Amino acid sequence: MVRRLKELRAPDAEEIAQLKGDVESLVGALHQSMAENCQLRQQVAEGVGVVRTLPT
């Protein structure tokens, strides 16, 4: 019975590992977009560079 439970949990462990990797990637992408947004806002506030807004 214990062996069967371990067999059932193995795919779950693989999925959890994949999800952890996905979270790390998403956090990295979010951090990058926030940093870029901060830089763009700073450029607009300082009046330097060309910042174009996209139509909504």
Tags for this model:
mainly alpha; 56 residues; 1 helix
Estimated radius of gyration: 22 Å
Instruction: Report, as a whole number of angstroms, the end-to-end distance.
Output: 58 Å
Low-confidence stretches: none
The counted number of beta strands is 0
Tell the overall outline: rod-shaped
Please bin the fraction of helical residues. over 70%
* Main structural class: mainly alpha
Order of helices and strands: H
Strand content: under 5%
Q: Biggest β-sheet: count, sense, barrel?
A: none
| Overall residue-averaged pLDDT value | 90
Number of helices: 1
Please, could you describe this protein's structure?
There is one protein chain. With 56 residues, the chain is mostly helical. Helix content is 80%, strand content 0%. The longest helix has 45 residues, at 2-46. It is rod-shaped and about 70 Å long. The relative contact order is 0.07. The model has no long low-confidence stretch (mean pLDDT 90).
